[in-house]
Amino acid sequence: MAKEIIHTEQAPAAVGAYSQAVKAGNTVYLSGQIAIDPETQEIIDGGVEEQAERVLKNLKAVLAAADCSFKDVVKTEIFLDDINDFAAVNSVYAEYFTEEQPARACVEVGSLPKGVAVEISLIAVK
After folding, report:
1. What's in the GO CC field (predicted)?
2. What pTM, to 2 d.p., does this model score?
């Protein structure tokens, strides 16, 4: 099975040895996104809700580059630096997953890249 590297300028550039997403067959694996503005490549200002919004916008852009949408997402993983932010992140998340919600994991981690509060990765099937 061939794999295709997915890239878009509408989401932050990968800052390491990874791709924004990889498509294998009809499955698209999106790397974790954090609250980086794709135009400036800088962390956005704001709290966890604003960060979650930017993360989901970044994921939406990568999904679009793979000819997918949030309706195609089957699994998400949310990483929080403080599990007490779960309700705030969940309220933003729910605006993007309005029907047929995917399976999901959410965990608290010791720290996240660049000191952000939230990171989300996902898998989509088209």
Report:
1. cytosol
2. 0.96
CATH of the domain at 98: 3.30.1330.40
17 vs 26: CA distance, rounded Å? 23
Domains of the chain: total:
1
Tokens 């990171």, residue?
119
Helix (H), strand (E) at residue 51: helix 48-65
Q: Which residues are catalytic?
A: 106
State how far the Cα of 83 lies from the Cα of 67, in Å rounded to an integer: 32
pLDDT value for 99? 85
Measure the CA angle with vertex 40, ends 35 and 43; round to 5°.
Answer: 30
For 15, the domain range is: 3-125
Q: How far apart, in whole angstroms, are the C-alpha atoms of residue 12 and residue 42?
A: 9
